[in-house]
């Protein structure tokens, strides 16, 4: 069977729906900006998607002068005044609290400084009529000046003059290049979430609820974070180039880049493990681990486990939460430190039990652990990788994760000559499997692919200078594509230098 990388394939010939049936809630959270809001509502009034299926909710998040609804607006438009209080203000709180009461089939979130081509919403909705697992992004261009009023804008849009509104505009080169490189996010890889921006995106209401909405702890960057969760849950992000729009003026990030990054980087790195370059700048603990790991530590020494852990976390900026499986109850029996038959197990427990990175879970001394049992133990969320290992299996778990990414399978495993096993699983595969009525393992196998190797085959893939050079060249090619500015070139050179020092010269 042939598989698409990361299994985010989608139709490429969808047409606008002739007889739409899904209702949509248009959500605009804003603070001040009455003039731009009037233009936004005028462009929404000109949308071709049926007005009977469209409701617009303007959330006034503490404007200095209360917002009002203008004359030119969609038929079903409601103004919601969100009462601010300490710890309860801003886009994330206002949006989450107000959207929780909405019952429309689809939610379309837009910024309050956008002008939309009349079929913009209809292009979003064709995807949601096709399937319920899409998160759809519109296409936008930025404009510096505009002189039209709401009535003029509405008439121009109805007259088919959207393209003629602005003769000069610009896009975000880095964003557009990322979209192009990923085949419009059909092949998003792990950095595809960075293409998720909130100026115009839509998803099914029930998917929004499953995700839990925005992260309320974030004041800005909330779209990037929910884009990461969309990826790890296995939803398909679509960039529709036909859903065109004008963005009125510069974005907040463009105007205040340094301040925004200073504010956002630590907050986002707490919950997005893929931001390991930010995480690598410190030795702080992070809220969401890079790896969720279950390890069978029966008949294992502390040094064997610590070596396994060290190999997995060799890349700066990565961390893990380990659940150690063993018959821990046996340690409650009377014993003598001299001749203790459970000395190895006791040493593991006594050293690690006070560290929050580790949890101890009871299994029977002679239990055979089925793969399905392990899969059911994983707590699916924002962690990108899920790993199981029998601690005595002699493989580098970081190499196993690398092989998972290279293979583009959902699960990659190794079994040694004594039938001791280890496997790594990528989050989107687990997220999709959890929705299936089939067993988790069969679902991962059929939807994403499963590949098992013996330890000799795995060793061949991860030994020798030729193979290491090939892997290094793949890394250079992958990371080099991200360079789109002199600053990014400097960052790229620093990363390569650090990698060479660590791998070749053995320096920290």
From TrEMBL:
Residues 26-151 form the Glycosyltransferase 2-like domain. InterPro entries: Glyco_trans_2-like, Glycosyltransf_2, Nucleotide-diphossugar_trans. Pfam families: Glycos_transf_2. Transmembrane segments: none annotated. PANTHER family: GLYCOSYLTRANSFERASE, SLR2126 PROTEIN. This is Unannotated protein.
